[in-house]
Amino acid sequence: MAENSTRWLEIARRYRTYIMLEKRLSANTVESYMRDLREFMHFVLRMWDVPPRKVESQMIERYMARLYDLGREKSSQARALSGLKSFFNYLLLTDAIENSPVEFVEAPKFGRRLPDVLSTGEIDRILATIDRTTTKGLRDSAMLELLYSCGLRVSELTSLRVGDLFFGEGYIRVIGKGDKQRLVPVSDVAREKVHAYLDRRTGSRSGEETLFLNNRGKRLSRVMVFTIIKQAVLRAGIDKQVSPHTFRHSFATHLLEGGASIRQVQEMLGHENISTTEIYTHLDRERLRETVERCLPMR
Fold this sequence. Notes:
The protein is mostly helical and 299 residues long.
């Protein structure tokens, strides 16, 4: 068992380097994949004591059945299987195996949950609760305006730099997943709010510096963005579970409702695969069905 355990650990270390440097996955995703891989490794070693190249499909199926028996959420099961696919694809790439044992293992079936969406009126109510007479208020107002009107992920928002603002051309540069860049149009309102914040903000004006700073002049954290939104939603009296991603969902939905194509929304959101964007068409159809049921007489 010691020999096979050593082999697993050696390959796992190389795989970690691969997904960090070659695939350029986020630190959170890397840790999630490695945690799932370690759990699978211990299961295989305990049950069969074989190295990675000897893993067979039925072993993976047994492992997935174990996750089910443990009461894991279907989303957690699907994530674990996705991580195993990535690992064995790496072994294929490095010629360690000839066929992936994950290829014909079915992922757990579960329906996609439609994301919560804020109306434009609700977004206005949230923004209206912010006191723009203070530097903090100017920051929060500009931040939430960009979050919604540009459809940003919270990590994209907190990593924005002053040098990413191309207001003369009407765009901002966004660094998305995998360090992929995209240009996103920015509204006049967002530009005005950002300018108002920068005029009052203390600190240097280096073109490479972070745009949104905390009261110590450091980069604003993701947790702080969540807290700012939670407080504003409470003040607005909105009874919904609202996160930074809710603003992104709302942005995409409002674009589609306004006549934008699914391809345009995909480009704005920075989705690599259009199937990720298509959830918003499902949401749009659901709202259409609800409107028809509410407005048309029953027969």
